[in-house]
Amino acid sequence: MTESSVTKELTLEERIQRLEDLEEIRQLMVRYAAAMDNSFDSDEIASLFSENATWSISPASDISGTHAGREEIRKFFAGLTDEYSWTMHNIGNAMIRVADDGQTATGTWYLVDPCTMRRKDDPDQGDAVFIAGTYENTFVKSGGTWYFQTLAGRLHHVSSWEKGWVVEQYRDEG
Question: What CATH number was assigned to the domain covering residues 3-167?
Answer without folding.
Answer: 3.10.450.50
